[in-house]
Specification:
The complex is a heterotrimer. By secondary structure, chain B is of the alpha/beta class. Chain B is 34% helix and 11% strand. Chain B has two domains: 96-350, Aspartate Aminotransferase, domain 2, CATH 3.40.640.10; 351-472, Aspartate Aminotransferase, domain 1 (Alpha-Beta Complex), CATH 3.90.1150. In chain B, the strands form three sheets. A seven-stranded mixed beta sheet of chain B has the order 1-7-6-5-4-2-3, sandwiched between helices. Chain B has a three-stranded antiparallel beta sheet with strand order 10-12-11, covered by helices on one side. Chain B has a two-stranded antiparallel sheet with strand order 8-9. In chain B, a hairpin with an 8-residue loop joins strand 11 (416-417) and strand 12. In chain C, the strands form four sheets. Chain C has a seven-stranded mixed beta sheet with strand order 2-8-7-6-5-3-4, sandwiched between helices. In chain C, strands 11-12-15-14 form a four-stranded antiparallel beta sheet, with helices on one face. In chain C, strands 1-13 form a two-stranded parallel ribbon. Chain C contains twelve helices and 15 strands. Chain C folds into two domains: 65-76 and 341-436, Aspartate Aminotransferase, domain 1 (Alpha-Beta Complex), CATH 3.90.1150; 80-336, Type I PLP-dependent aspartate aminotransferase-like (Major domain) (Aspartate Aminotransferase, domain 2), CATH 3.40.640. By secondary structure, chain C is of the alpha/beta class. Classes of the chains: A alpha+beta, B alpha/beta, C alpha/beta. At the B-C interface, helix 2, helix 3, helix 4, helix 5 and helix 6 of B face helix 1, helix 2, helix 3, helix 4 and helix 5 of C.
């Protein structure tokens, strides 16, 4: 697990309490897990993604992330319909570890409104949130 | 580490390839019986090419597996203090009686008149289990502890259905084995976790808070996976029963209780045994085991079929049980394993209590010997196992995994690691009753030496094991590349 | 007690080290109200007494020349197999969670997975289930995970009835439903009426009446309906001769492997085979061993995909299985390696030859085949009137003349299921036929 000072935070995404990040472009929200989560899980060996077309609910599990010794839920921070999943993760689940904010994104949701997204933490609030967890 | 009481390892280990890398086309390892009847040809559309299997001689097979066996650690090799797994000595007389031709060569669908000995054996083992627990009836059908658990929860489920109202939840402490929530979920129950108090036990108050009339019951391991006796068990059972629930006793740790505890008095409605733990049958590198269940009056009608009945001197299999949960496996339980279990209960008899006493003594001796060297998160009185963790060694970057691997070089099988989940970096040590004082002393000395190394030479500890055929195989690579089959 | 080694002096010094007066002081945490009142009422036996007692029970099972199959098949067990499988490094070790001290078990299971997958024509075999019935139930549950939103499965009426009952035990609390596929007059399953909304069809081959099913037709029917094909079996030896289920198009193959080197043992423990395609590997239950390399680059083996299992995934696990049938898997692997490709083919062919010989003899004795479809080493015959009584008399003469099919299928009342394998000599079969005639 990474020390707080080594964690990478991005200011152009929003964060959930369960360590997903989300980035909104029009009515499409792209979701991934953040540097903190990938570090806590260790080497990811498999990502179970929702199917395109699935309806997901905000802050509910819609997939899972597996390391060799643990499995953790993959939550969607927003409600809506899944319109894309990152198929590259099927063969290269390690992208979640090596590039959590970029090549390691997980899925995209089409949302009806921005209510769920707006309720997420901005980077400064999230930094405080993680710092408190560390303590 | 040469002048120690612990054995250490040096090893005469041969390299050995995979079977098919050793094979040579044209060899054969089996004696084919004489063709004393005419050949009968099946239509070619039904037959395929001969299956792809390696060609080896009998000697090839013996060499191959003898060499593989030398890469394994067993109870017969040395101390195997795997917590919650009760790796006690597996007596050899058990193996001898289990292979008697009158047991080994008998077909399960023979007429009952031909199965009297087998049925008698099963009946008598059931009786012995009842004597050990104070319960009312038993079934030997479950194939392993987890299937015994499933049988128990299926019975609880069937009971609530029979009462007319199914429930949706099942209480279980956070110390439970993973099989508990998995078994409950298979029956449609949502697990309701209950935290321990600071003494490492579940309190009646905590149960009162979550127990309601939509909760089917509780799954309770006693002693729990911290080795601590759940001393409020009788009161907890009463709270559950008062709200119409039932109590599932997980018997994984029965080795701590034989001759001391009356399971019925704890208020348990159904309990399973792991015969490959408590009753000395060999683990076989992962099974087969057997998971008999014992029940009280309430659940007797729900036991799996077939049941073994005795009338006069005759034994029979009974399928007439309208409320039964049904059948759990193809025939009548893991018979050859049950033979070994009965051989053990009959060898030990009332001295099963001595086994329990020495098991608890040995665990407490290790606890006393390692206190001060390793962090003891729950210093309370514990029974047959003791849980330390790596909090002290972590300061030097040495983890539970490193300690476990270093122990291998010292000639011991590592304890259970990272379980129970309520203790970070748990080292769960269960020596069992069959370890001698000398072996325990050697283990303590090795663990102390590792604690010292963790301070003086942490890099060494992290670079172990050093004397094994392989060291720290890459589990991430295995899961990512997923090679599950050779040629 | 010979399994406990502490001397009184050692006991004393250990108690002193712990700081308690006597052993009972270690049990103070157990309240009086739950204690046992009296010592356990079982008399300890000496090794001599124990052996006599068990020999008496073993001898109370009468030996007989049994022409019985129906899920348990007597086959020759080469002497070297129990010898080497019985090595205590295999027998007295635990599940291989610590790979450095269990490479023996791990490599052997990897080899087992490989040979099992090859035998059945499948890509992935797990490290075993309890027995054929358990593998059958788990295979059925697996189909619901692969075909999300389905809650019913269709099974052939001639699957082993005990397997079907076991599946129903697993289904009961979850509300899954099993519907039956009928049998055609030739003894094969009718695949023409697969019901709507099922996840899969499960068909056993050879089926319970011994008939070799047309698996290619089953696969075609399943594909047309858009459902999975699960093939079950009770007699692994059949695959030494028959076209394997994988090449016939099966999606999942499950069955019983105890024909390979494991004694009858009154029916247990068995050995459950469970196999699937690589793309469905995350839906399979039970342990898997995978190849990897260690820190020095050596080939090594570890348990893998463990995050599917109960000890990690807990209530979200697909199954609660933990202990499996590991030692029987090891034994079966030794058998497959011993027989090899040619050996298994020769023994399987001999099974069919012996059964054909027995069948021809019974026909001469007035029995009539129940079905005309081809069989492997087991077949159903309509018996002459009054055979039930004759069956009992034959038991007294040391022969078990098949299994009463009417016990399981009212429509087949009066028919009996016979089995012969390579262990039955012509002499035994002739002696039996003489008694029957």
């Amino acid at each position: 697990m990474k020390a707080y000072d080594d964690l990478v935070f991005k200011s152009d995404v929003s964060y959930s309490k369960t360590h997903e990040w989300a980035k909104k472009d029009g009515n499409i929200v792209r979701v991934g897990v953040d540097d903190y989560a990938q570090g806590a899980l260790g080497d990811i060996v498999y990502v179970e993604l929702p199917d395109v077309g699935d309806t997901v609910k905000a802050n509910a599990a819609c997939g899972s992330l597996e390391s060799t010794k643990a499995v953790s839920d993959l939550n969607s921070p927003v409600s809506g319909k899944v319109v894309a999943v990152n198929e590259a993760l099927e063969d290269s689940p390690d992208l979640v570890n090596t590039s959590p904010y970029d090549e390691g994104w997980t899925f995209e949701v089409e949302v009806a409104d921005s209510k769920d997204f707006d309720a997420m933490m901005k980077v400064d609030a999230y930094k405080d949130f993680v710092k408190n967890l560390e303590n | 580490m040469s002048q120690s009481r612990y054995p250490g390892t040096r090893g005469l280990a041969f390299k050995e390839p995979l079977l098919w890398e050793r094979a040579h086309e044209g060899r054969i390892g089996i004696s084919i019986p004489e063709q004393d009847v005419p050949e009968s040809k099946l239509d070619a559309s039904l037959t395929g090419p001969a299956p792809k299997l390696p060609d080896l001689s009998e000697v090839d097979v013996i060499r191959h597996y003898t060499r593989l066996s030398s890469w394994n650690f067993g109870v017969d090799t040395g101390m195997y203090p795997l917590g919650s797994c009760t790796m006690k000595y597996n007596p050899k007389i058990n193996e001898a009686v289990a292979s008697l031709p009158g047991f080994a060569n008998i077909h399960p669908l023979m007429p009952e008149s031909c199965l009297q000995g087998a049925l008698k054996l099963m009946y008598e083992l059931e009786q012995d289990l009842l004597k050990m627990t104070g319960m009312k009836a038993a079934s030997l059908q479950p194939s392993a502890g987890a299937q015994g658990e499933l049988a128990g929860i299926l019975m609880i489920h069937a009971y609530h259905s029979h009462k007319g109202k199914q429930r949706s939840k099942m209480i279980m402490p956070t110390t439970a084995h993973g099989t508990n929530p998995a078994s409950a979920a298979l029956c449609g129950y949502t697990p309701v976790p209950v935290e321990l108090n600071k003494d490492g036990v579940v309190t009646p108050e905590a149960i009162r808070e979550v127990m309601d009339e939509d909760t089917a019951g509780i799954m309770l391991t006693n002693p729990n996976t911290l080795g601590i006796f759940e001393n409020h068990v009788a009161e907890i059972s009463k709270i559950i029963h008062d709200k119409g629930g039932l109590v599932y006793g997980d018997g994984a740790n029965m080795n701590a209780l034989m001759g001391y505890v009356d399971v019925h008095k704890m208020g348990v409605d159904v309990l399973h045994f792991n015969v490959h733990k408590t009753l000395s049958t060999p683990h076989g590198g992962g099974g087969p085991g057997a998971g008999p269940v014992v029940v009280n009056e309430t659940l007797e009608p729900f036991l799996p079929v077939p049941r073994v009945k005795k009338e006069g001197d005759r034994y029979s299999l009974c399928f007439d049980a309208p409320l039964t949960i049904g059948r759990l496996q193809a025939f009548f339980g893991n018979f050859a394993i049950l033979v070994r279990a009965l051989a053990y209960t009959r060898t030990m008899g009332h001295m099963l209590k001595d086994a329990t006493e020495i098991a608890v003594l040995n665990a407490n001796y290790i606890k006393a010997g390692l206190k001060g060297y390793y962090n003891l998160p729950y210093p309370q009185a514990s029974l047959h196992e003791v849980i330390f963790n790596d909090a002290t060694q972590q300061k030097n970057g040495v983890t539970t995994l490193d300690i476990a691997k270093r122990l291998i070089d010292c000639g011991y099988h590592p304890p259970t690691v990272y379980f129970p989940l309520v203790v970070d970096g748990a080292l769960m040590i269960e020596p069992t009753e069959t370890e001698s004082k000398a072996d325990l002393d050697g283990f303590i000395e090795a663990m102390r030496a590792i604690a010292k190394e963790a301070e003086t030479n942490p890099e060494l500890v992290k670079d172990t094991p050093q004397n094994t055929m392989v060291s720290r195989p890459d589990e991430t690579l295995a899961a990512r590349q997923l090679i599950l089959k050779g040629e | 007690m010979r399994y406990l080694s502490h001397t009184p002096e050692e006991l004393r010094s250990m108690l002193d080290a712990i700081g308690v007066k006597d052993i009972s002081g270690l049990f103070d945490s157990i309240p009086k109200e739950v204690r046992l009142d009296a010592p356990i009422d079982i008399k300890p036996r000496t090794e001599w007494e124990l052996r006599r007692e068990f020999e008496a029970m073993a001898n109370a099972n009468c030996p007989a020349v049994a022409f019985l199959g129906a899920g348990a098949y007597e086959h020759h067990v080469p002497a070297h197999i129990p010898y080497v499988a019985g090595r205590s490094e295999f027998l007295t070790s635990y599940t291989p969670y610590q790979p450095e001290v269990s490479q023996g078990t791990l490599q052997a299971i990897f080899e087992f997975q490989t040979m099992t997958a090859n035998l059945l024509g499948m890509e992935v075999a797990n490290a075993s289930m309890y027995d054929g019935a358990n593998a059958f139930a788990e295979a059925a549950l697996m189909t619901f995970r692969l075909k999300r939103k389905t809650e019913r499965i269709a099974y052939s009426r001639l699957n082993h009835p005990h397997y079907v009952e076991t599946m129903q035990t697993y289904f009961r609390p979850s509300g899954f439903e099993a519907v039956e596929l009928p049998i055609l007059p030739n003894g094969r399953t009718d695949f023409s009426k697969i019901p709507d909304g099922v996840s899969a069809i499960i068909v056993q081959s050879p089926n319970f009446a011994g008939v070799i099913e047309d698996l290619e037709a089953a696969s075609k029917a399943a594909k047309e309906k858009g459902v999975l094909l699960v093939v079950s079996f009770t007699e692994a030896m059949a695959w030494g001769l028959l076209k394997n289920p994988g090449s016939c198009g099966a999606d999942i193959v499950c069955g019983e492997g105890s024909s390979f080197g494991i004694p009858l043992n009154v029916g247990g423990p068995g050995l459950g085979f469970l196999t699937c395609s690589k793309k469905n590997v995350r839906s399979i239950t039970g342990r898997l061993v995978g190849e990897t390399t260690d820190k020095n680059g050596n080939r090594s083996f570890v348990l893998t995909l463990a995050a599917r299992e109960q000890h990690i995934r807990r209530e979200k696990a697909d199954s609660n299985i933990c202990t499996n049938s590991g030692h029987n898997a090891l034994t079966a692997a030794m058998y497959m390696a011993t027989a090899g490709s040619r050996g298994l083919r020769a023994i399987a062919q001999l099974n069919h030859d012996k059964a054909a010989y027995l069948k021809a003899g019974l026909e001469k004795a007035g029995f009539k085949p129940l079905f005309d479809a081809p069989f492997f080493n087991e077949f159903a015959m309509k018996a002459p009137a009054g055979f039930e009584k004759r069956h009992e008399e034959l038991v007294k003469k040391g022969f078990v003349a098949g299994l009463d099919l009417g016990r399981y299928y009212p429509e087949y009342k009066g028919a009996w299921l016979f089995c012969a394998t390579e262990v039955h000599t012509r002499e035994q079969i002739d002696a039996f036929l003489k008694e029957v005639a």
